[in-house]
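Inputs:
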Amino acid sequence: MTLENQPRDDGEMQMISNMLHEAYDPVLAEPVPARLARRPPRRWIPYALAAGCTLLGLGVGVATGWQLHAWEGGPAAKRPEVPAFVERAAVAHATYVPEVRHPVEVGADQEQHLVAWLSKRLGARLRVPSLDSVGYSLVGGRLLPGEKAPVAQFMYQTPQGRRLTLYVRTDASENPETAFRYAAEGKVKVFYWIDRKLGYALSSSDIDKDDLLKVANAVYRQLNP
Amino acid sequence: MSDAERIVALIPRLRRYARALAGDRSAADDLVQDTLERAWAKLHLFRPGTDLRAWLFTVMHNVHVNQLRAARPGAPLEDEMPELAHPARESDGLELRDLDLAIRRLPPEQREVLLLVALEDMSYGEAARTLDIPIGTVMSRLARAREKLRVGLGITGKLKVVK
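Outputs:
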């Protein structure tokens, strides 16, 4: 008997195997969820990137993929259910963006402390993207209550005082959506996506969707270099 | 049948394995979804004529390892999970729950080997190729997994282990 043919001569292994089959074979008969059964259109490109596309294809891929997401979430398309954290993000955005004296808890001058503190409270290593390339500089951030755990909000603004917020939540595992989506809550426009356990919502109330998409692109690229 | 059709046909198998590997249904299907996304994106790298199932399980293995690393950056994968409290339960279905708990306590690398061999019915060679490890490693991980299962399930085998 060769190793390749696997010596399965003992009853104990057979028993373990039987128990495993008994426990998990019912899964085979379950209907396959729709999200698994369909072959992805091009909108899954960001994942292809994570899987290691060439550098050349990277910029184009992200841009194409994201444009498609944006369209997909448009009013003409069938709208997916907006996760609760996105609504919370929009509310938090509307709450703190008009704030003149206390827009953030910890300012950008203490960025290192800000990141360390929020990472500790959220239980995940956070990164704050630098958005200078698209005209936004970091104002700072704050800790907020989320559905089950604390969340973080980072605020950015242009020299003209236009502001946007990046809302980050951890433990997003119960919502498997990894695609890039758009939602609008009143005046607040939000691009959101979920990357593994982290959920992101980028909100603005004073730039149009295309411009916000450019910023979202920049954020995504920084978080997924 | 095209490779794409064969991938779709293998989804139930991926789900079964993922359920045993990841535990709850939603985490398992997340793992399957991530695996499929990656597989679709990398399908052009699959060599026709080779074992598509093994290739898919390799992709899932890589995704799973990445997820474990992402969930616990820097933390070494512990050799033993902490003891879980046993909630009060009815005797019905006790064995399956015990099995689930026992599997859950295995270190991920031992759990994978055990499931590939005992649930997916892979040979040691197939499991070794799927996980890209030597056959000897498959065998030693399997032996350790079995030892832990014996303890967890209270199997009195030839090897009596006392904790």
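Remarks. The CA atoms of residues 2 and 162 of chain A lie 70 Å apart. The helical segments of chain A are 11-24, 26-29, 34-37, 45-50, 55-72, 84-96, 111-122, 209-223.
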